[in-house]
Every structure is written in C-alpha cells, then in structure tokens.
Write a structure and sequence with these properties.
7 helices, alpha/beta, 185 residues
Length: 185
C-alpha cells in the first residue's frame, strides 16, 4: 500500500507540473503553459506569473489556460500589466473567463476559445473599510480605474455602447460563438 501511495504522489507531481497558482514547468521552453483555474487571489499569489512574463524572451509563447470566476482587482492589474510588458506572445485559452479573468484574457495577444466557452464582463466590484471620507475617495478612484480598464482592455472586443452599458452597471455574458466572432473582427 505504501509503494502504491508513493507511486500516486509521484504521478501527481510529475504528470501535472503546472497548477492553479501560476506554477509551471521549465521556463526555458519555447511554450510555457500556466493555469488560472481558481478564483484570482491576492497579488502575492501571482509573483511567479508576473516574473515569468517579465523575463520571457521574444521567441517564447506563454499560454494562460483560464477557467476562473475572476477575483482580486489588484492581482488582475498586476497580471494585465505584466502581459502588456512581456516580449513573449501571450495566448489566453479560455473555457470560463469571468470578471477579472475575462479582462486578463482580453489583454493577451491572442485568444483561443474552447468548446462551450463562456466569458462574463461587468464593472469591478469590491468592498471598503475606513472613514466615510476615505471610502468616498476610494470609490472615486475605483470608478475612474474601472472605466479606464474597461475602455482600454475591451476596446475592439466590445462596442463602445456595450462598454458604456457595463460601466453603468450591466453584466454581459458571452458564449463561444459570439466570442469567436468578436475576436475575428
């Protein structure tokens, strides 16, 4: 039984080298796959991914396999900025990309769409703590940030009218066929 358990552990370690918090295989490979398949947590969870993107070579391709409900805005911004800085080609391979995960996908050079893929876009959400004045200042900042990120990242994928609709509170669900039509524009 003990040998069997060690075998299973070895199999898990070596058969699945990349896992959800941004760990991946050999970073000298031409193509590196990173899995974003959980809720996007704090920025500290993605230091590996942002460093990988920052240090990637022009001839490398980094594939982000995305199956995530979204998550932390600051982590999303770190990842988007690293995608924009990288010399590598970035490909978002999406099954489910909602909220922050959708914006990360739209920041990549290319998007691959899995069968039955879904994207969801909406305005940033979050909570605040602090004095009423601090909360008002933070709210103003996040409204401006939300509008800027949506207008920049979604440009070309969504129409200006759709972006404005999301900014004013709509949620947009997009299925595989519609995603494919939009990325071919």
């Amino acid at each position: 039984m003990r040998k069997f358990s060690l075998f299973l552990i070895s199999l898990l370690i070596f058969a699945f080298p990349a896992y959800s918090q941004g760990k991946s295989e050999d970073t000298t490979k031409q193509t590196i796959t990173v899995y974003l398949n959980t809720e996007i947590g704090e920025p500290k969870n993605y230091v590996y991914l942002t460093n990988l993107l920052d240090n990637a070579k022009k001839e490398q391709t980094i594939i982000l396999k995305i199956n995530s409900p979204g998550g932390d805005v600051l982590a999303m911004l770190d990842i988007i900025n690293a995608i924009k800085r990288t010399k590598a080609t970035t490909i978002a391979d999406i099954q489910f990309a909602a909220s922050a995960a959708a914006l990360i996908a739209l920041s990549c050079n290319k998007i691959k769409v899995e069968r039955y893929a879904i994207m969801m876009l909406h305005s940033m959400r979050g909570g605040m703590q602090g004095t009423p004045n601090e909360n008002m200042e933070e709210a103003k900042l996040f409204v401006a940030l939300n509008n800027d990120v949506l207008k920049t990242v979604c440009k070309g994928f969504l129409t200006d009218k759709e972006i404005d609709s999301i900014i004013t509170g709509s949620t947009m669900w997009i299925h595989e066929d519609s995603i494919l039509k939009r990325i071919k524009k």
